[in-house]
Design a protein that fits this description.
mainly alpha
């Protein structure tokens, strides 16, 4: 977030490019409040990148499911490659078009600087479609989410003592990945109404998230029961 704030100040100086938030014709949040809300609301998305690395390293160091953990690290490497290629693709696109604002916004999206991309779209009225984020959600975040769920399912199935800390680390990683996809669903919905391919990708993501949200309640109950059982021994 420090890097994103620094890039924003370099690009826009002290200017606040966001308008006040209104609802039913009434202002419910000032321009400054809107700036901070949009900035802070993206924090969990950055945290999920660190949580994935923490989850894999924790399980590897503890000698738990090293095979799955290494696969998770491989997926993290694939994510880095995807973002690097996407940044390069949109950088070249920005150089060859007359109005580069949309391509530059996509480039920042690909670089995981979503707040700066949001500010560019707000200031220059660029296309608000987030194609890179949609493709990344489907081809990067969704496989990562499924792998995390496989690891969590194995941990919960074993029900070993003193395993609840690992369960919490994995569950946190699952929740943050779900959030990183969920926060973009309103934008994906608008895109889905424009294109058949986007509609297909959006539908798959929506079905998966609905299944995860219903499954999450059961997981939370198991985690609470496991934590209570562990604390009751002391």
């Amino acid at each position: 977030m420090f890097v994103e704030n620094l890039v924003y100040k370099v690009c826009f100086a002290a200017e606040n490019v966001f308008s006040a938030t209104s609802f039913c014709g009434k202002e419910i949040c000032t321009r400054t409040g809107t700036w901070w809300w949009k900035f802070v609301s993206l924090a969990p998305n950055y945290s999920q990148i660190l949580s994935t690395t923490l989850m894999a390293s924790t399980l590897i160091l503890d000698g738990v499911y090293e095979k799955f953990s290494w696969r998770l690290l491989i997926l993290s490497g694939w994510s880095a490659i995807f973002h690097l290629v996407s940044v390069s693709r949109w950088a070249f696109e920005a150089l060859r078009v007359e109005d580069p604002s949309a391509a530059v916004a996509e480039m920042f999206d690909a670089a995981n600087l979503q707040f700066v991309a949001m500010a560019i779209r707000e200031k220059y009225g660029a296309n608000r479609d987030q194609r890179t984020r949609l493709m990344g959600a489907f081809f990067v975040k969704l496989p990562t989410l499924l792998m995390k769920t496989v690891i969590l399912a194995h941990l919960l199935d074993e029900q070993k003592q003193n395993r609840w800390q690992q369960n919490l680390v994995v569950m946190q990683a699952v929740f943050l990945t779900m959030f990183s996809i969920s926060q973009l669903m309103p934008t994906f919905y608008v895109m889905a109404k424009k294109d058949c391919l986007y509609f297909l990708l959006f539908t798959v993501l929506l079905v998966v998230l609905c299944c995860y949200f219903s499954f999450t309640l059961w997981i939370i109950i198991l985690l609470i029961k496991d934590a209570i059982a562990c604390m009751s021994r002391f």
